[in-house]
Amino acid sequence: MESYSFNVRMAIICYQYSERIKSELIIASKLLGSLGELKGNELYGAEKIVSLFLDALLGEIEIAHGVTKLQNFREASLKIAEVIGRISLREYSKANKNLSEALSHITNCGGKAIQLLRQKGFL
Question: Residue-wise over 57-93: b if at least 16 C-beta within 10 A, else e?
């Protein structure tokens, strides 16, 4: 478990990143869920698009980690990298589990930020 000792400014930044990334993770989950319904060239193309989306999301999470230095963002980026690999192996169930774990890391980080902002009277 990561220790959270950030100030209000960092809590706002963490909250902002975590909310945006959570939204993108939910979109990724919906895209991943649709892969099982496709076959042939449609599946191949969809896997490529979902992987490209996840790669862009991975970049955003890495930026969040670079700005905040919070380990939760790093852990989430490792999980997303795993998701991309699992899609290429067509292990959609395992990919979905990794995606859920990434969401957990991001939600935990955002929750700690919200808690601090509430304590300080900003929410």
Answer: bbebbbebbeebebebbbbbbebbbbbbebbeeeebe
Tens of pLDDT, residues 57-89:
999 999 999 999 999 999 999 999 999 999 999
CATH of domain 8-119: 1.20.120
Amino acid letter, 81: A
Contacts made by residues 57-60, CB under 8 angstroms, sequence distance 24+ = 57/21, 57/24, 57/25, 57/28, 58/84, 60/17, 60/20, 60/21, 60/24
pTM of the shown model: 0.90
Check: CB of residue 46 under 8 Å from CB of residue 35: yes
H or E segment to which residue 27 belongs = helix 8-34
Using the structure block, give the residue that is written with the tokens 């042939």.
Answer: 40
